[in-house]
Amino acid sequence: MIIFIDFDDVLFNTKEFSAYLKEFFVKAGIDQELFQKYYYDPNDQAKDKVRLFDPNGLFSRLEKYEKIDTGKIRHDFATKLQDLERFVFEDVADFLVSMGKENLQLISFGLTSWQQNKIKGSGIDKLVENFVITEKSKAQEIGQLLAQIKLGFEEKIFFIDDRAEHLEDVKKTFPQVTTIFLCRKEGRYCDQKNEFCDWEVHDLKEAGEIINNLNMSS
Question: Which residues make Cβ contacts (< 8 Å) with residue 36, sequence separation at least 6?
Answer without folding.
Answer: none
